[in-house]
Design goal:
Largest sheet: 2 strands, antiparallel
Order of helices and strands: HHHEEHHHH
CATH class: Mainly Alpha
CATH superfamily: Winged helix-like DNA-binding domain superfamily/Winged helix DNA-binding domain
Number of helices: 7
Distance between the termini: 36 Å
Structural class: mainly alpha
CATH topology: Arc Repressor Mutant, subunit A
Shape: elongated
Number of strands: 2
Length: 147
């Protein structure tokens, strides 16, 4: 399985904000730190705000920040929300139309694998991703000072 770029950017935004300890940052700050598109990040930020992970502050001096503590943000939940209800294969969806669906063992195996993936992700929080905070901060904040 491969996660979408949207999920990748979701995790990057959340990690960056987790390092900021409630300080406001801009989409531009995050895009510059990771060298990624601001346009893509705007969609991610909007999505995260809609789901109550972050707050956005408009106007001069505005930006975005985490609303919840990193210890309360479950990775499995975040990935489910950013990936949507996508299954590993279309036949795993409730309205799959594969001609061998009624006798296919692959469906069960892939369903089990997907459950296992989210079970493992569910054991971790954003705080777990920030355990090397000093190193992450040096890497991400260094990119701001270089430009």
């Amino acid at each position: 399985m491969r996660l979408t770029t949207f999920s990748d950017y979701t995790m990057r935004v959340m990690m960056y904000l987790g390092l900021q300890h409630g300080q406001l940052v801009t989409i531009s700050d995050i895009a510059q730190a990771y060298d990624i598109s601001e346009n893509h990040l705007m969609k991610v930020v909007h999505h995260l705000a809609q789901h109550g992970y972050i707050e956005t502050v408009r106007g001069k001096g505005g930006g975005l920040r985490l609303v919840r503590e990193p210890e309360t943000i479950n990775l499995g939940e975040m990935i489910r929300i950013s990936e949507g209800d996508a299954s590993l294969l279309p036949c795993l969806d409730t309205n799959g139309t594969c001609c061998i669906q009624s006798s296919c063992r692959l469906m069960g195996i892939l369903h089990e694998a997907q459950v296992a993936l989210f079970t493992v992700l569910g054991k971790y929080t954003l705080a777990d991703l920030l355990q090397q905070e000093g190193t992450l901060s040096r890497i991400l904040m260094h990119s701001k000072s270089v430009v």
